[in-house]
């Protein structure tokens, strides 16, 4: 279609709400994901010290409960509960002690407040980091995919160099073997838990950027005859292969950390921000030449995050640009659109650099671009492509582009397997829904959940609302309205590739000359 995430649904105009839904999701994602980069950049700056600030309890933000060495092995049998083993601490008191990395994360980086209803003061250091990363994103995206493509050659490949360096270092540490074995040895009983399937589905959809419209936007710049079928397989293998490889890097270091502390690997393995900003920095602080490994890790994290942010912003801007026809041409139209997008997201981000910012971040993460919204989006995308536009018809289109027909398995996936899996995991998610909490302790207030559900529904309702609106606005019987609104609206460039019988039946989008301008701009 050579269009962004909205106009691409001209294959079935009735369901153009899918495009608007993906735009809402990717906007929310762009807004809160940048905070991971801001935190990573903050840690990167703090890594340039002879002694890492999260490795000791001698800082102004530390509390009396801070302790650097946990000798859990001395307390593993309950008979020592009242015996003093470290300084003036008994084993009973040791249970309430806190690591310096946790205190650095919560008291220095986040300076976290008591709840969502206590936003507190703004963290100016974190805000400056946020400004810097948004400026980096802007100047990498403002000129389009040509400039972004050149930058991504470095930002996408250099992390592999860092991963290999960290892996070589990790496997030479004591305890690395136990960590890696814990990683690759499956616990089959977990497959009986619905939450595992929900998390797996969510991770794959989020990792592949499915339903965000970003892949659609990037694909719109390809040649018409580009082998998108092969690209899809390559993308999947590289993406999941990198994740699998990175697991060895992470768990070799976590195995070392567990060995150093004398605890089981499961007690140091964390997920989410806890892995990147608590577990891994803690492990790095125990290694020789700690600042070097910390700087390498956070530099890699920053580059990987920038890649994801580039794609999200590019997807959003491309969709917005498609809404403005050629007659609104302006020399710096793209630069202005990117600037407005970045500025708007930055203003919302200011709520996440306050003392209550982590609660806002989790609210966005749990509701706005969560597995629930992405699964809903993917389900309807499959239904529209396979059952409204037609799976066989779509297969013919792909064959016309790449020169051969994809394996029939793809058609079965679009028609049956993927929609069923998406809806199954979605229903699992709804049945097993639990109110949002922070650290399994703080429970969000009712109005916080209402805000979260409003963010989730703002994208999910785009689809049914737009369908009903278009059907009511159309004229004729229901059958006539349906037939008219599901007839594809082709661009001028399609006539060069269509069979003669299709040319006579297809409708060109109104204002053919304007569309030629848009198509030409997109190709350029």
TrEMBL record:
It is found in: Membrane. InterPro entries: Na/ntran_symport (IPR000175), SNS_sf (IPR037272). Na(+) binds at residues 207, 239, 304, 307-308. It is a multi-pass membrane protein. The keyword Transmembrane helix applies. SUPFAM superfamilies: SNF-like. Disulfide bonds join 57-66. GO terms for cellular component: plasma membrane. The keyword Ubl conjugation does not apply. GO terms for molecular function: gamma-aminobutyric acid:sodium:chloride symporter activity; metal ion binding. The chain crosses the membrane at residues 20-45, 124-141, 153-177, 197-221, 233-259, 279-304, 336-354, 374-391, 412-430, 450-472. This is Sodium- and chloride-dependent creatine transporter 1. Keywords: Disulfide bond, Membrane, Metal-binding, Sodium, Transmembrane, Transmembrane helix, Transport.
């Amino acid at each position: 279609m050579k269009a962004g995430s909205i106009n691409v649904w001209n294959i079935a105009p009735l369901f153009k709400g899918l495009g608007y839904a993906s735009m809402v999701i990717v906007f929310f994602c762009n807004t809160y994901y940048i905070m991971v980069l801001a935190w990573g950049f903050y840690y990167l700056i703090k890594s340039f010290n002879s002694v890492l600030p999260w490795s000791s309890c001698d800082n102004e933000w530390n509390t009396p409960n801070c302790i650097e060495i946990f000798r859990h092995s001395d307390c593993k049998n309950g008979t020592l509960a009242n015996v003093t083993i470290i300084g003036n601490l008994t084993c009973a008191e040791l249970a309430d002690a806190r690591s310096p990395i946790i205190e650095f994360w919560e008291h220095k980086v986040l300076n976290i407040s008591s709840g969502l209803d206590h936003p507190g003061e703004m963290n100016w250091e974190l805000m400056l980091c946020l400004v810097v990363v948004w400026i980096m994103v802007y100047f990498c995206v403002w000129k389009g995919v040509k400039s972004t493509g050149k930058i991504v050659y470095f930002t996408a490949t250099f992390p592999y160099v860092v991963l290999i360096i960290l892996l070589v270092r990790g496997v030479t540490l004591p305890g690395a073997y136990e960590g890696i074995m814990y990683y690759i040895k499956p616990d089959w009983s977990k497959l009986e838990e619905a939450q595992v399937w929900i998390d797996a589905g969510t991770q794959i959809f989020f990792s592949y950027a499915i339903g965000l419209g970003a892949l659609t936007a990037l694909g719109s710049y390809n040649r018409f005859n580009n082998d998108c079928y092969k690209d899809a397989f390559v993308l999947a293998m590289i993406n999941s292969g990198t994740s699998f490889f990175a697991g060895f890097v992470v768990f070799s270091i976590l195995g070392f950390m567990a060995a150093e502390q004398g605890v089981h690997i499961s007690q140091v393995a964390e997920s989410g921000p806890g892995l990147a900003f608590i577990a891994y920095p803690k492990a790095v602080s125990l290694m020789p030449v700690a600042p070097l490994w910390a700087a390498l890790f956070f530099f890699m994290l920053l580059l990987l995050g920038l890649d994801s942010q580039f794609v999200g912003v590019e997807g959003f801007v491309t969709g917005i640009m498609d809404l403005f026809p050629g007659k609104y041409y302006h020399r710096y139209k793209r630069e202005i659109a990117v600037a407005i997008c970045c500025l708007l997201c930055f203003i919302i981000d200011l709520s996440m650099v306050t003392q209550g910012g982590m609660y806002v971040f989790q609210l966005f993460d749990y509701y706005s671009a969560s597995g629930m919204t992405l699964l809903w989006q993917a389900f309807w995308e499959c239904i529209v492509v396979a059952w409204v536009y037609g799976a066989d018809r779509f297969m013919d289109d792909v064959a016309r582009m790449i020169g051969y027909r994809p394996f029939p398995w793809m058609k079965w996936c679009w028609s049956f397997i993927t929609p069923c899996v998406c809806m199954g995991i979605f229903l699992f998610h709804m049945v097993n829904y639990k109110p949002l909490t922070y650290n399994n302790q703080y429970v969000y207030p009712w109005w916080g959940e209402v805000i979260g559900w409003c963010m989730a529904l703002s994208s999910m309702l785009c689809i049914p609302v737009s369908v009903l609106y278009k059907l009511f606005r159309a004229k004729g019987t229901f059958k006539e309205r349906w037939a008219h609104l599901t007839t594809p609206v082709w661009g001028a460039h399609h006539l060069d590739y269509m069979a003669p019988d299709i040319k006579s039946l297809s409708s060109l989008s109104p204002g053919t000359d304007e569309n030629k301008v848009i198509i030409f701009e997109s190709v350029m």
